[in-house]
Write a structure and sequence with these properties.
By secondary structure, this protein is mainly β. It has five domains: 84 residues, no CATH class; 179 residues, no CATH class; 196 residues; 119 residues, Immunoglobulin-like (Sandwich), CATH 2.60.40.10; 180 residues, Immunoglobulin-like (Sandwich), CATH 2.60.40.1190. Helix content is 6%, strand content 38%. It contains eight helices and 83 strands. The strands form twelve sheets. A 14-stranded parallel β-sheet has the order 1-2-5-24-28-31-34-37-40-43-46-50-53-56, with helices on one face. It has a 14-stranded parallel β-sheet with strand order 3-6-25-29-32-35-38-41-44-47-51-54-57-59. Strands 4, 22, 26, 30, 33, 36, 39, 42, 45, 48, 49, 52, 55 and 58 form a 14-stranded parallel β-sheet that branches. β15 and β16 form a beta hairpin. The longest helix has 14 residues. The protein is globular and about 110 Å long.
Length: 1014
Amino acid sequence: MADTILIHVEASAMAGGDGSAQRPFASLAAAQAAARARIRAGLTAPLEVHIAAGLFRLAEPLTFGPEDSGTAACPVTWRGVGGRPILSGGRLIEGWKEGTINGRACWQAYLPEVAAGRWWFTQLFVNGRRRLRARLPKQGFYHFTGVPADEAAKDPGTHFHAAMRACFAPGQLAAWPDLADVELVVPDHWYENHLRVAAVDETAGIVSFETKGWSRLSRDETNRHTRFRVDHVAAGCTDPGDWWLDRAAGVLHYIPKPGERIDNTVIEAPALERLLDLAGDPLDAARRVRHLRFAFLDLRHQEWEYPRSNPGPLQSAFSVPAAVRLVGAQDCSLHACRVSQVAGWAIEVLRGCQRNRVSACALHDLGGGGVKIGHEGGLPKGWVDIAFRGMDAEALGWGPAREAPGGLMPGRDASVASATTVSDCSIHDGGIIFHSAIGVWIGDAGRNRVVHNHISHFNYSGISCGWTWGFAPTFTVDNRIDGNRIEHIGHGMLSDMGGIYTLGLQPGTTIRRNAIAHVHSYGYGGWGIYPDEGSSWMLIEENVVCATKSGGFHQHYGRDNVVRRNVFAGSVENQLTSTRHEFVRPFVFTRNLVQGAGNGNLWDGGGGNAASIDHNVYAQEPGRALRFCGRSWDDWRALGQDQASSFVDACMLDIDGAEPAIGDSAALAPIGLTGEGIAAVWSEAGPRLRSVVPASIDGLPAETEVARAIIEPRLWPWAAEWLGADDTSHPFSSLPSHATVVSSERHPISLTVENRGTAPGAGIYRLRVEPPDAASIAGGNNLTFELAPGERASFDRQVIASGAQRTFRVECAAVGDGLFSSALHLLVVSAPQTMPSLSEVPSASGLIAALATLPPRPLAANPGTLVATVRSACAGRTLLVLVDAEDTRPSHADDPWLGSSVEVFIAGQRMAPYLQLVAAPAVAGRLPARVVLPKTRVEPPEVTVVSQTTPRGWRLALAIPLSLAGVDPAAKGFAYDLVVSAVPAGASDLARRHLASELNPYIASTEYLAIILG
């Protein structure tokens, strides 16, 4: 191949150059025209445009189309030489004069384009340093004092109920003359509102807004008054470094810092909304930008703000544009470039992009985030309407909505994987303006590689992957988040964040060998690794996570993730959390080192019981009492968890130094961890290029890509889920809260497997029931498959519960490389039954004796010990109940359900509203039995309660008129459940056992016992 074709450009060159080294072009436009001419003639060698170090002020974005493309053999590269040339979208502000503002000496510059309405900016850079707009308060936030009464009356109590007005304290706001250009920034949960002010009533202390945001404005996630900051207000221009732009007069005011002189200070403001644009056709593969490279460039000074009608999106500031945009681009790259001093994101890779790379780049001083990788199929229309209010999402590069022509629907359509690589970059100090922006954001897109980056100092999450809430199909497949160093995230600004945060189904995704530290939220939720909202089928391994506020690992809900060989250490609150209990297994948690929970809760949340947790090492300082989902270590293990795990009464990991260090690691040998291995994860995380950056992206370590099968296993308690190929929707975007089977009846279960990978896959899934006596499976236990990429197969079976257990698990064990096992947790309910009948309601003194002869029903859990026996009958329209409880520590509580108690739930029928009452037994003869309606704390006189102490606990009998629950006198039946709370032998805590099923009866009456009245 011939030598590389070179075109030279130099900012200080004389006009009329020919692009040679001796006579370089003086403008980027001239160099681009010459490059296009060579491309049109046909490339026989790589072409490089060498841009000499210097400053290029861009009058418009540097835009590249298909006509600027290279080929795989002859790529086109725009390269900085002799240092990084600066490509600036900013303007030098000159003509400064001395003046005053708010009684302070300042500099003033008249800007006629601002006065004429042709220029506006929200950033200013002085001698290369960002200066913040005048704001109040100078540090932190004010707090609203509430909302007006009419706003409060409309508030349903949800945090997305937006108010149009709020109340403020004296001195916080005023009817300033520049109110039209004032912006209130309101952080709340995981996002922030950018609100424009319509009016301020100083007398009433009420501020009104032009448009609704997303926040209640009365209370935030900590139940404190909502925070706010006043941005760009003349009254706040009082301190050195403050600046304010007077739109009407076109005058910029700046209060200089000590040492700055009016005659030699360089002051710049951005004027372009985009600096570099790769603009191919996202819907026409023949019109893509291809094999175009950029190396060693310094891009600065991009401007952007939301339209006045747009308060910002609900998450991740993802609708904020970037300084560098790729649309319809393939096999392009940015290598060793710097993007800084921008209002929005640094780089965005949007619709119609494949196999692009961002490597060894420095992205910092960012108003928004670092790198954004958009959806493969287009945004859901709902997000277009919400997040892009007053904007044109399609023109911004997102393509048509997924429901529109040209859009792609997951589960219905195929897409070409984004396959973007972000590697060896330093991404830091972001979210300065748009606080919820992220270091690296991946939407609904697959086969992306985010590897060996250093991400730090963001106000929300470090890396976010996925954009689907629940269990609907996604394009988010086979993403690799490996070897990154993520630290100093949150800064107490927002809540509900993770060093690494994921959403939706993610088959084939790995989160591996990342080092995560110092994640601190404002309110709840400063986690290290945070699988949220349906995150499923991910492998999370060999990460080291330490020094978080809320814990190293938290899964809200999802299924079948594998969490193994990680280190989670040093949390202010809990260390590990599984929030939602669903009928799918959330994860397998094995061979991890877990150390330290500031509040003593190593495990927390309602979903931990459904996970498979074993072969771990737990470490804590000596003598510290620890809890596992509210239980002691012994009670936790009695549930079947952590049977082969160990508990070490010592802190094994020192996290106070520069890097975590293991002292004696002998206790880690059984789980396959070593001190050296943990240290290697920590030291190797982050960019691999610690000294010299290769001159070309081709000099980087190659990312290993091996074609592999990725099998997505969907095990469900219903018939096979897939609809016909012409269906446009999917029925299971979210799951019911529970799954039940009726004892002795056949119940469908199904397994659907789909190969989401790039190579053929084969294997076996074996069905089994645990405990084995709980149920049998009809139709065969072995499910064998062979699938080409994109193929799927379904298997239908039936499960028959024996009635021997209240709950059981159907496991789908994988046999084959790289397969994920799955499991269902099923509740057993009884078929409608006829209750024993008595001829009349016994007297109080004879109530216990009349019921004691009836057959008892034991209340126990599997695994677990007997808590109580229950006998029930009806006498006419009165429910009679006798409970014999095994209780080693009978107790009363102010809230009776928090002590020894019987809770009875009655509804006219299943799914109907229910009545709840709580009865507390007599305790050692000192406290009498009592019964209350918990919602009102009234003791209903219609209910008879009788109690006795027994050698093993207590006995309590109730007679409850069904009319109290609103049961129709002519009804042929009703629905009924009961919960007994007691401390059985061998237990250290109060145990709660249900009569009808293990479903919490507070949720709904759907699974109560259906009683037939004779």
